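#dry-run=false #mode=assembly
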Amino acid sequence: MNPLVIEKVFKQYGEKTAVNGLSFEVAQGEIYGLLGANGAGKTTTMRMVLGLILPDAGSIRYRGKPYSTEQLSMMGYLPEERGMYPKVKVSDQILYLAQLRGMSRRDADANLKRWLERFQVPEYYNKKVEELSKGNQQKIQFIAAVIHKPSILIMDEAFSGLDPVNVELLKSTVKELRDDGASIVFSTHRMEHVEELCRNITIMHKSNPVLQGPIRDIKSRFPREKVVLGTERDIPGLERISGVVSANRTERGYDLLVSRKEAAQDILKHAMAQGPVERFELLEPTLNEIFIKTVGESHE
Amino acid sequence: MNSMRTVIAFTMRNKLRSKSFIITTIILGILLVVGANVPYFIDKLTGPGSAAKVGYIASEQGEIIKGLEQQFGQAEEQKVQLVPVEATGSDADKAAALQQAIEDGKIKGYLTFTENKEVGFPDVVYHSKKMLDTDTAGALQTGLQFVKTEQAVRDAKLTAEQFAKLTAPVKLDTVQIADGSAGGKTEAEQGTAIGLTYAILILLFMSVMITGQLIATEITAEKSSRVMEIIVTSVAPLKQMFGKVIGTFLVGLAQLVVLVGAALINLTLPHNKGALEKYGIDLSSVDPKMIIFAIVMYLLGYFLYAMLFAAIGSLVSRTEDLSQTSMPVTMLSLAGFYIAIYGLTNPESSFITVCSFIPFFSPFILFLRIGLADPAWWEIVLSVGILIASVLVIGWLAAKIYRVGVLMYGKKPSFKEVFKAMKAYKV
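#status=ok
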């Protein structure tokens, strides 16, 4: 049985339904992507997983067991709205949070020092949080979420507000945690991160799960309709090939949209007849496109 | 239990380390130490040598001056010292000479006499640069009255014995009657009781309010900095709330012990003891029952208000909104305090008796009654019982509000919204 199983959970706030019949499972050593526009119900779902609020119906099971306060020590949480005690030293508050989750002060201290080394900021141990830059506060926040080696980690907007270098740093850390066997639920608006990290995803829209499954399957459900053609010369007549919706000249060739897959081969033939082709690719849709299509379409 | 201890330790450590806490404690400590020594210093300053020097024209009213001097000489502490000023000539010349003496710093003021045939005693004017010099004027008035009486009595040809009888002061002592027992509180004990009740009331009120506000502020700060989200996913909210309340309580208690200790040590210093006795305060006459009830009332009052403040703190998202939201609770405690202050002079009134059973007032008012009136034991038991019951009810309610409040952001929720959230969260 998977460490985290969410089964048909419903949550209603007064008249408004926040989560409508959501189910998913997260395996050991998996990062699960929870996607959706703002207000789609991601945070409510995460709060239910964390036990902050109870679902009206459905169940959430942790290693086969229902929620109890004992589960708290195996869960880590990186909230969307970041926050630490601004006037308390980094070491004091991280150790406090670790102790609250059942760690001994000594173990927590050793872990904290290791993490600070890892992020190349050992000098922050005795600094107050308000003295740190925003990006570095994020690092501390991240350490607070993982210091106790949680087996279930919830990350809301995991990499927001970080520069590219720190995004890479945290991303590789998250991958390591995954490889160590953690089950991670992850939400973000950066689709390229999801494509890189997640095996399975759920896209939520207005409280409903609208797309679910392995990213590869989801992508195969959407037609390949983008063709990239790399050539230095002008190739007239591309628009006239049947099945081509549009053709745009770019610096290095053409971007084309096709309505059927077979049209791509006709494009290649047409281009090769006119000269050498440096690059040809029939692209699968990006998650970004799928997301916009799914969420955008059901808007209308 | 373990995580609650962690919360308590964290709360205490942060508080004890914070600059504002340390500075407040030091300032309050200094104020108390100074305050404890004030009676002594007042005594010192008004002691011998500080008698006001009052001038008069050496050649005038010899008899009255002699009488006055005799009178002032007899007093325990001389308030007025008469200084003769040599001057002759017209009234204007004399006035000028007296003025000159003031300028020279020889005297603070002077007396002039105008004959008053009707009374047979001159009208006296005390000229002084100081405004409202009531102390000196009072002493002069008493002295002159005595001199006049003496003159009149002498004219009536009374014997010295008769005269002594006539002027001996009336002795009036008041003793408070206690229920069922013969020995009540003597005047000194009553004075001590009122003083002590007043002091402890202020202490109770201040520490309950200050620590209560502190708890609310900290909880709101945790909420507005969003660290709350991590906290509530790490530890059961109840443990966190009670941990915070208990932690702050211990810090407040430590502060109180330091401050009261500083004041007590200073008050019992030998030089202060005499000064206090003069004001009718004798610390050794304090009823131990009062101290015990002061502690009980402090405990119950603290927890009652602290939990209310915790619930309020959990509802507010921004520290700016806190004082407004906590206003009703602040008013409640203020009302309790002022009713108690009113009760200092009317401890037996039925209004006070009724108020001593109302839970939010009783920490102050029951204590007042125990200190100054003599409530029946069943009244004390009933009042304390009601108070304990309300602490439990408020604690339970505060815990529920806290549980949902810490997750509610945005504008301050109404009662209806809180109630709805409780249902939604199933707490």
